[in-house]
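Help wanted!
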Amino acid sequence: MAFFERLRAGLDKTRKNFTDKIAALVSGSAAINEDFYEELEALLVMADVGVNTTGKLIEAIRAAVKRREVTEPDQVLPFLRAYVSERLGEGVARTKISGTPTVILVVGVNGVGKTTTIGKLGHYYSLLGYKVMFAAADTFRAAAADQLAIWGERAKATVVRQAEGSDPAAVVFDALQSAKAKQADILFIDTAGRLQNKANLMEELRKIHRVIKREIPDAPHETLLVLDATTGQNALNQAKVFQEVADVSGVVLTKLDGTAKGGIVVAIKEEIGIPVKWIGVGEGVMDFRPFEPEEFVKALFDKE
Amino acid sequence: MAFDSLSDRLQSVFQKLRGRGKLSEADVNEALREVRLALLEADVNFKVVKDFINRVKEKAVGDEVLASLTPAQHVIKIVHDELTELMGGTQSKLMVASKPPTVIMLVGLQGAGKTTTAGKLGALLKKQNKRPLMVAGDIYRPAAIQQLQVLGQQLDIPVFTMGDKVSPVEIAQSAIAEAVRTGRDTVIIDTAGRLHINEVLMDELKAVKATVKPHEILLVVDAMTGQDAVAVAEAFHRELGIDGLIVTKLDGDARGGAALSVKAVTGRPIKFVGMGEKLDALEPFHPDRMASRILGMGDMLTLIEKAQAAFDAGKAEELERKLRKDEFTLEQFLEQLQQIKKLGSLESILGMLPGMGQLKKLQDVKIDEKEMAHVEAIIQSMTKEERRNPSILNGSRRKRIAQGSGTRVQDVNRLLKQFEESRKMMKKMKDLQKLTKKGGFKLPF
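Answered by r_m:
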């Protein structure tokens, strides 16, 4: 089970931080009283789960206590684990690679790791034997296309690009034609980072989405929103707005190898309903994993 | 609601308090509970919030406040003062070395915006007649060096690089020598993004620090960072001893709690904030103004400064005269729109006005380049009389104008509405000017 080992290795910091505290909390409490809930709330909020979702989780525990399903402090953790992983697990489906080409649009705010994510995923699909193509539709940031080109070399993917400052929708159009002509299996579209409250940039994204749909009616087959695990509650706004504009089908949660606790995943699933599909745990080409709710939550909450 | 801004949230809390003649201790507690939630939802660190609330509570339940005739204002003022204090009291400037070059090193997590910030900082310094040299010290991220080089070209600032095969320590050292040789007075060192728990890479930064002895080590923090901001800032500070912070992406709708927390845990000031994608969008950080903005009291000082920088003084005087006489017409509106464009987006301007945070209709007053052309056409299709006195614009006149300008009647209507909004905005500015002339900037309640 090398995969789980590595998932654990990547999540080690995350888990240690979070569960040590919960374990300390549980062992230090004689009873499930208001102090206990208050401490639990503090821990969940500090894991970026968010006030709202934390409230819901605490309510769920209170209800379970009332039903006498949970009676001792040390039963709280297993209950929470089961509860959260069940909710995270809904709607997680793998990307189907079918038709030529399968179009995967990658969106997100600035600096979350879109290009790096594409590099890693592209490399992964290349290894599986698919013909992979990248579209450098970030024509705004200086040297963004160069960055993607370097990843293209690593991933053995053809990169379609134009000059900096050109219309990103035109790059996408080009890439779609090229992918069809060259019979690529998967086309990843890298877009410029954009803050979700920038109306003009969101319109630009809407246009990109429209162009894709026009050229290949059932595309994009997947729209991945890349989220930085260190992001706080703003990730909810991001998910909400990007979903409205580009019909996001899944989240890639990056930078989970830091001390950021990744609790935002729970909030996003609870409040927006978008499932997490991949997680990023480092800068290396292999440093990403499919999101496995059970394993993720287990790694997150387990006392070892 | 989770998506309300902190300022909206606090305003509704204080609205409740304002309605009260007298406050009991329970009232204050209730309000502070809301403040606590709002701050937590804004990603202010849990522990920082706890301390903050305790401090405010101590001051707010004192006899003086409860006996005051306007207790709500008292509480708001305490929150405002504490918030300002939390963010660092007064504005903090960059250090300048007595013997040039001044060496500035930018550090932070991946994706915080270090390279972009290096460019922006270079642009800012150049504007102040400094001669910066930017140093490409990120040898890990693909194309990071190219990115800085492109920025250097755009800004006409030299970029020092030794490629990605030389250690950052050596690069930094050679860069200082280069700066001395070419007479550059400020050196901005860009470094690779790294996790604060990556010992190897943190050691690398320590080595750079030991070698070039930077005058300023600035930690670049993303405004959207959650609770972890504190752990990151603490670790960088412990390992490197940072001198200040730059908070990026504040032009987003993140409530920016990270900005509140980092100062509190490191004791180091926020020196600049990134406010946009353009290279001139780096601003000095003013804690008091930021506190006002968060509380929805507007950021008039920044607006006035921006206006002063962008407006032609003569024209401004003329406008003021006309405003006073209430002669603000569509013709001036057109001129204004063009001037306002220089100030930045209309949304950001409105965000600085007191009470405007609650205005959800901001969509209506959004302007873009194309629309500007339409506006121009519409106004130019009006008669002089119509421009002076838009109230005479009845249905048939509007239809004629729409036809004349190649737009639709709705467009004409929308423009007139924008004009009205704009008039109101100008009025607000005028009132404020009176206020400041009267002496002292007072809280608007």
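OP: Thanks! One thing I noticed: Strands of chain A lie at 102-107, 132-137, 158-160, 186-191, 222-228, 250-254, 276-280, 288-290.
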